[in-house]
Amino acid sequence: MKRGIRLRGVSGTIKGKVWHSEHLLRSGRLSSLEIVLDDSSVSRKHAEVRIGNDGNWTVIDLASTNGTYVNGERIPPNEDHPVRPRDIVQFGKVAMIVEFTEATLEGPPSDQLMLAAKLAIPSSVGTGSMSSVLSTVQRSPGPAVSTDQPPRAGDQLIALLRAGQHLVHLQSEDQLLDNILNDAVSVLDAQRGAIILAEGEDANEPRLRLRSLAVGPREPGGRFPFSKRLTQRAFASGESMLFKNVHDEQQITQSISDGAMGSVLCVLLRTPRRKIGVLHLDRSVYQATFTESDLMFADALAAHMSSAIECAHLLRQQRNLFLKTITTLADMVELRDRYTGGHTRRVTQYSTMLAEKLDLPEDQMELIRIGTPLHDIGKIGIADAILQKPGRLTAKEFADMQAHTTLGAHYLAGIPELAPIIPIVRNHHERWDGTGYPDRLAGEEIPLLARIVAVCDAFDAMTSDRPYHENKKGKPPEVAFAEIARQIGRQFDPVAATAFLDIRDNILRVMVELMPGVDVSTPSPKLDPPTPAMPLERTLIVNDSLAEIAGIG
């Protein structure tokens, strides 16, 4: 026997409405569809929910503009995605909970679930008690939500807890905050929401800073996304607060007036160790006011959110520790070479700035931050006689020095987690014209991140004290900038090198900070016209090009 499905609205104008089918439910703005949603975030033909030959229900996004989400995670278009009881399915900004007409989960009756929900945990209850309630909800499967009565707060609580379970695994703290806030705004039918977190070392007087902002379907205007006064009041008191009518309660401020706020929830975000911030939700003067039930539900949700935020915070701390470990390792390599002190830190800073200028996505930015400090890790395997030689290297010694790229790649090959940064380590001395090393790659054959580091590495080699410079002193920055410009399309990727020149002022500021005493006032010299590229070995010996000589490491 086939199972039917019900989609019950949990937000906005569709809250409490139910759509039922035993075969197919199509959603969108077209009047011919089973689920007609008059919302600007919904496409004309947005998605389908249908049963398969195996009797299981799936949702399919029909390449909609604003996407279809299951438990807060956007699903790929035109692919079947399974749905289960109590899943939250969201078409654009319109959210619904999944119910089946026949229970498919084994277990005790739903009384235990409803009991946990009815407790709803007032703000005076500590997070230890809240954790036990959440554990009860998560352990008790129970049947599908009853369809004989409107959804209760407990239904919403359980749905949101399920929707939020995946959030603790996210690597990006900002993405985490945005996702959980959008869930809260949607299910609590708020016109706007904000997450404000406590920052600073002083636990007694932390700074409250806006970290995430979400807007409901009404998209209110105004310059103020939340009330600082009410937020500070709730945080200072250590309690979640409901302001049913901010005007009657004489709580009116410029932010409340400008944001057209009628009622406000300020819900404390906390862990067993500390208060971490406030979840601020508001409804307009044209909406029904928040109730005590909304406050209790939001407070229970805040306890769950707080655990996820704390988890993301710990992940960020772990990442920072990892970066510090990498930087320390790079510093240890530099200790073997008295001429390269601070080189790694400067190249990392330059490369990060250049990657930002090129608008690289966050995952690539992360590889730059991790990989650049290790770009010279292979020098561990270079003999001291070469690494610490006070004068110019011979052709044979230079060939030995070149091996630091392949040695570094070999060292990192045994660490699977660092595999994505190996191209930086191996290929940051490749040349755009194909005469670099170790693989003689040319043009876009060279990995992009290696091309970025190549520009920054050469610039720092030219401007820092090295044995191959005249008087062993680094060249003025403007001389190095001119050489970067001269080598565009020859040694350097034209796009990366041009972007590097565009951030000249930012580079100079970093130099002043990380190279005390450097003179950044030298006027830019007249640039020589480009000359045909020469083979690398001959160029190093005959041409004395600054950027070419910098290629020794």
Brief characterization of the structure:
By secondary structure, the protein is α+β, with helices and mostly antiparallel strands. It is built from 18 helices and 16 strands.
Strand coverage percent:
15-25%
Low-confidence stretches: 103-155, 161-169, 524-545, 547-552
The SS-based structural class is: alpha+beta
Biggest beta sheet summary = 6 strands, antiparallel
Instruction: Give the % helix.
Output: 25-40%
Arrangement of strands in the largest sheet:
2-1-11-10-7-8
Instruction: Count up the helices.
Output: 18
Average per-residue pLDDT, rounded, comes to: 76
The strand count comes to 16
Kindly provide the radius of gyration, computed on alpha-carbon positions and rounded to a whole number of angstroms. Answer: 30 Å
**Spatial separation of the terminal alpha carbons:** 71 Å
Question: What form results from the Cα inertia axes?
Answer: elongated
Structural description of this entry:
40% of the residues lie in helices and 15% in strands. The protein has helices at residues 111-119, 127-139, 153-164, 173-187, 228-237, 254-258, 292-334, 343-357, 362-371, 384-387, 395-413, 422-427, 448-463, 477-486, 494-502, 504-514, 536-543, 546-549; strands at 5-9, 18-21, 24-28, 35-36, 47-51, 57-61, 68-70, 73-74, 81-82, 88-91, 94-100, 192-199, 207-215, 241-243, 261-270, 275-284. The strands form three sheets. It has a six-stranded antiparallel sheet. Strands 4-3-5-6-9 form a five-stranded mixed sheet, with no helix packed on it. A hairpin with a 7-residue loop joins strand 12 (192-199) and strand 13. The chain is elongated, with a radius of gyration of 30 Å.
